[in-house]
Fold this sequence. Notes:
single chain; alpha+beta; Chorismate synthase, AroC fold; 5-stranded antiparallel beta sheet; 18 strands; globular
Amino acid sequence: MSSIWNNRISVSIFGDSAGAAVGITISGLPEGEYISTEELTAFMARRNSSVMGDNPHNNSPVPHILSGIVNERTTGTSLCAFLPNSMRTVKTSAKTNSLICSGHADYTGAGRRMSFCDILENIHFADRLTLPVCFAGAICGQILQRRGIYTGAHILSIHKIKDNPFDPVNVNRDAVLSIRKKDFPVINDLKGWYMTEDIRRAAEAGESLGGVIECAAVNVPAGIGSPVFDGLKNNIAQLIFGIPGISGLEFGAGFTAARMIGSQSSDDHYVNERGYVLTKTNHHGGIIGGISSGMPITINAAVTPAVHPTDTDGDPLQISKVCNVPKLVPCVEAAVNIALLSHMIDYPEFC
């Protein structure tokens, strides 16, 4: 099933974006892990975007945990939670059967479901289904953090405006945590202001904008992952591409490495004062051969502009979102958390 991801940890999403609720079941979590409800709620709240043009229908509700956590400790059984849709509305339109959003999965989804899906509500392709992914990633993130591993993401660019990137070699815990506290997740606040102004101008012109999200995971020990088909890159990519609107992904130097020569792209190893083997540069993005190298794991995820709806007569309809990039920042972070924990469980020193 397309709504189930299974790799040591199993994540199963249920519900429809326009339904009464969406939910998730997570199996394979270690028992006895402390889960802070306050931290969980704070992570979910980061998905709320204050950027103009966002639809309040997509705001993050408080999750209702049905099983798997007792007295803020995981029990080892499947963790099930649902997230109610308090903004649910039933839409009716004379053009229900002719509504197609350019760049959206309306047409392809209708073809896959033999026209039995509700095109008007974009049921199984809407970004509301990133809510349970954020929930799972928040749970996994807390388990990782108690082992000193921290993941953080920020807006690297929106349209043509770029934020300062992470230092791929020296990014640390404080660098990734500081961005989480910001309403608009950027490193350089002035660049963030330029981005919000660009979004405002796009809204006035009836346009939408895309961008790039950069994510880093720090203190991941060397040796996490597997080669070939079960690599750490493979699993991160699978989860990242499960986020609606993601159109590209690169690790480390990514496509820039294709323009380098071998002596530029190679990362020379050395032993630091604590006896750890590290690299002087980090073009490989912390993963080599599907296995973590001990360097920060760094990725860039490209987000397409929000869709522009038109009906089959070609008549434009009002867009509900101007820029999806800010609200997808915690979603990317959550996807990396899930992939990391799924491989960390096999790590000899995990407990």
